[in-house]
Amino acid sequence: MEHGLTGRARTGLIGAATSLLKRVRDATYYRITPERLRESEERLRLLIEGVTDYAIFSINLDGTILFWNSGAEHVFGYSEAEVVGKHFSLMYTADAIAAGVPDTEIARAAEDGVALDEAWHVRRGGDLFYASGEMTRLKADADGNPRGFVKIAHDVTTRIEAFETVKRQALYDDLTQLPNRASFFELLERYIVRAKQEGDDRFAVILVDLDHFESINVSLGHVMADGLLVQVARLLERCVRTNDIVARLDTDRFAILLREVVEPEDAMRIVERIEETLEHSIYLDGFEIHTTASMGIAIGSSARDSAEDALRDADIAMYEAKARGRACHVVFDREMQDRAALRLNLQMDLRRAVARLEFFNEYQPIVSLERSMLVGFEALVRWNHPERGVVLPGEFIPEAESIGLIVQIDRWVLHEACRQLRAWQVQCGDDALTVSVNLSIKQFAHKNLLDDIREALEQNHLAAQSLKLEITETVFMEDFETISGTAALLRELGVELYIDDFGTGYSSLSRLTRLPLKVLKVDRIFVNQISGDPRGVEIARTIVTLAHNLGLVALAEGIETEVQLTTLVALGCEFGQGYWFSRPVGADVAETLIGHRLPLLVVQ
Q1: In-domain check, residue 225
Q2: Is the C or the N end of the chain the one with fewer CB within 10 Å?
């Protein structure tokens, strides 16, 4: 369509008109644009209205709600008629309103263009939920005047609660809800530092070990045994004072930190109260259970050097109580430390084992869950004791660590695993096959670690990417700067790092992000919960998602059931290992598994 017919005359030398110029402008754009704008706005409105998982609403400059989509009604519980014309602070907690959070959010969005909001909010009816969102400043109108804001919010309560559960399980025992070993160690260490600073503050550490718990576990079953542990945990809490700390160290062993112990008699009164309480029977599901405990007490003061010393002395005293017939308590003294020298028998055996190379590796397959194919093995050390037969690492590794032999054992495991892997690669024609080796804290921090790894790779003509090193969360409790430096050098070498037992220790997520890790292993504790606890799936989902968000690959260990396997596959977990695929096996059996699909194979 033509529009805007205009013209002007062209004149000659004497001013007479000689011709006429005509200018024509196409105005079709100006007729269609308003219609298109209306159509576009309608499509946008329908799109926003169709979003139900996200709250989308607009407010004016003073916070009055102007628009409210169906997602906002779903998230906050208010209908559009209930909120339009009201201030948007109605969805904030009373504390947030008192602190001026809504006004601050508007001011920040007005100044910066956007304001992030992640906090607890109030739903219609008063229920609290955790929302994550952002408020965005609208573009100014044609005259340059500000027009208000749009806010988008999403209910993330489930994710936050699952993440909080993971964090809690890193610090607390899942069964009894008491602080776990790592948490207790940290608390005790801090208290000892304070005691040294103050100079006159005294404390006591009590180890409580239930007598004959294993027989209770066998005769009544795990469920009843777990119930007993929970009952004992509550009894211990009632026996101590408000500012004392009760923790569960392992299966049937508890620890108590008594703070502000003026005289040793203060600790004795607590111990006697525990003994008197345990004299009464405990009733569980109609069963009457009578239990006793062996207790070791270490009276501490500012002179004691570390949490490790206090726990060691209490442990020695506790074993002395067991040696005296159980169901009693013993206070640590130096003579007990001398008697603890009996452990030299085990230490001497270990030294002989290192000298004679009485160790061998078993290998547990690692499987790609997407392809159901074996991609590598985890090397697990065993001790072939000349008298006792095969000894599992749980029995001798702690002692090897305490006497400084763990570095030599780890070094042997590393070299043997590399030798065996290269033999498999050559024999099976599969250079992609990998092996992962567990490193203790001492080995990881050892000055010769990099040289040992280079030597193991070069001697066996093995590519660096074929070797994976597994470290636990406890590395974060060491000299982190040294640890991170070593990790960086390993990355340059091409060797990948796995973080093992994630969520079971006391770790810092901020430090986790600073290490050049490749794989985060989902601990068997969380894998086991997938089958028995509805929350277990969400916890596993959180850990797998955390791994992916950090740019890591997830590997689940301890897979034993089809439900666990299918759930982990659905969650996007890339790799797995466990009895569902195969138990740890000797090198000859492991070789027969290479190149096979394993989801239905369980090696007995």
Answers
A1: yes
A2: C
CA distance 326 to 465: 52
- Note down the domain range covering 65: 53-155
Q: Where does a domain end: 134, 155, 176?
A: 155
Q: How many domains does the chain have?
A: 4
- Asked whether residue 392 falls in the same domain as residue 521, the answer is yes
Residues 268 and 403 in one domain: no
Give the predicted TM-score (pTM) of the model.
0.49
**What pLDDT score was predicted for residue 593?**
92
Question: For residue 26, is it within any domain?
Answer: yes
Indicate if 18 and 1 belong to the same structural domain.
Answer: yes
Q: How far apart are CA 165 and CA 174, in angstroms?
A: 9
Torsion of CA 326, 330, 332, 336, to 10 degrees: -50
92 and 177 part of one domain? no
Ramachandran quadrant class, 74 (left: phi over 0; alpha: psi -120 to 50; beta: rest) = alpha
**Which residues lie across from 452 on neighbouring strands?**
none
d(CA 496, CA 453): 12
What pLDDT, on the 0 to 100 scale, is given for residue 504?
61
Is residue 4 within a helix (H) or strand (E), and if so which, with residue range? strand 2-11
- DSSP, res 139: P
Residue 446: its pLDDT value, please?
A: 86
Q: Treating both helix axes as pointing N-terminal to C-terminal, what angle do 406-428 and 344-356 enclose, rounded to 10 degrees?
A: 40
CA 589/CA 587 separation, integer angstroms: 6
- Report the C-alpha gap between 279 and 272 in whole angstroms: 11
Q: Nearest CA to 289 among 206, 229, 207, 209? A: 229
Distance CA 362, CA 391 (A): 12
pLDDT of residue 507: 54
Phi/psi for 421 (5° steps) reads -60, -45
∠ Cα 410 416 422 (to 5°): 135
User: In this structure, is residue 599 part of a structural domain?
Assistant: no
CA distance 572 to 558: 17
**501 & 539 share domain:** yes
Asked if 583 and 604 count as a contact pair (C-beta separation under 8 A), the reply is yes
What secondary structure does DSSP assign to 506-561, as a single string? ---HHHHTTS---EEEEPHHHHHHHHH-HHHHHHHHHHHHHHHHTT-EEEE----S
- Residue 106 maps to which CATH number? 3.30.450.20
177, 229, 263, 297, 503 from 174: Cα distances, Å: 5, 12, 34, 26, 11
- List the strands of the sheet with 253-259, edge to edge: 245-250, 253-259, 203-210, 293-300, 329-331
Final residue before a domain boundary, out of 119, 136, 155: 155
Query: What's the confidence (pLDDT) of residue 18?
Result: 47
Say what the pLDDT of residue 19 is. 46
> How much is the pLDDT for 531?
78
Query: Domain holding 557: CATH number?
Result: 3.20.20.450
Q: Are the CB atoms for 413 and 396 separated by under 8 Å? A: no
Sign, Cα dihedral of 81, 84, 86, 89: positive
Average pLDDT per block of 10 residues along the chain, 604 residues long: 49 45 50 53 53 84 90 90 92 90 92 89 90 89 82 87 76 91 91 78 90 80 91 95 94 93 88 92 85 92 76 90 87 78 78 94 95 93 93 88 89 96 94 94 87 95 95 70 86 92 63 84 90 82 92 94 92 95 94 78 41
398 and 272 assigned to the same domain: no
Q: What pLDDT was estimated at residue 145?
A: 79
| CB 511, CB 480: distance < 8 Å | yes
